[in-house]
Amino acid sequence: MKVLLIEDDLHLSGLVERGLGQLGLQVEVATDGRRGLDRALAGNHAVVLLDLRLPKVDGTRVLTELRRRRACVPVIVLSALEGIGDKVRALNNGADDFLVKPFSLDELAARVRALARRPQNLAAVVIEVADLRLDLRTRRVERAGQALALTAKEFALLEFLLKNHDAVVTRAMIAEHVWGQHFGSLSNVIDVYVRYLRAKIDADCEPKLIHTLRGVGYVLSECRP
To answer: How confident is the model at residue 196 (pLDDT cuts 50, 70, 90)?
Structure first.
């Protein structure tokens, strides 16, 4: 089971990584909020462990952005803040659990496993922008009520764009998250697949949803950037 830990305290993150590793969990560490948000949106972690006081992008912003972009990964907030108000705010912002520092690694591991055992139908599995609808469970894609036939790679690309809707994604981000490779020679391949996807998603439909930002990347949005 893969867990993402977003924590800037290197001593604590090292302890958690080693401790959970000994309990059979694989831990990836991000030491700032910007990197953590990027990795969490990749969508390949069973649970995210999130500190609130982070550099670059604070933990509350990371949490609200994850939920705004309809990322359904369970999140456990790890915080030295222990007031009821702090816990309520975190839960209202989309956290699934809240654990006060210092904490027991055994308890943390138990909470991670409990969240990971949740049935999939308790998590949001449908992403919608305008009249475009993607169902992660059935892998069905519709535009204006009409089913679209996508290849596996086109589906993965659309899923990534939808999870980051209204935000610009660079070709390097697409290469890493969709192809699992560094950008390098993938530039033309990415552009070709975006054209394939645009032909299926935007043909004969309004508004156009997939937009190119020349020299930057792409954005999926109802509004032209």
So the answer is: very high
Instruction: Please tell me whether residues 51 and 75 are part of one structural domain.
Output: yes
Report pTM.
0.55
Residue 49 pairs in a beta bridge with 5, 76
What is the number of other CB atoms lying within 10 angstroms of the CB of residue 146?
A: 10
Neighbour-count burial of 94, counting CB atoms closer than 10 A to its CB (0-12 exposed, 13-18 middle, 19+ buried): middle
Same domain assignment for residues 96 and 26: yes
The CA-based diameter of the chain, rounded to the nearest angstrom, is: 56
Do 147 and 49 lie in one domain? The reply is no
Of the residues 116, 149, 181, the one at which a domain ends: 116
Confidence (pLDDT) at 119: 57
| Count of domains for the chain | 2
Q: Which amino acid is at 5?
A: L
Range of the structural domain that residue 171 is part of: 126-220
* Nearest of 222, 197, 189, 196 to residue 207 by alpha carbon: 222
**Closest by Cα among 24, 8, 5 to 16:** 5
| Crossing angle for the helix pair 105-116 and 10-22, to the nearest 10 degrees | 70
Q: How many C-beta neighbours within 10 Å does residue 54 have?
A: 24
The percent of residues above 70 in pLDDT, for the chain, comes to 92
Q: Is residue 225 part of a domain?
A: no
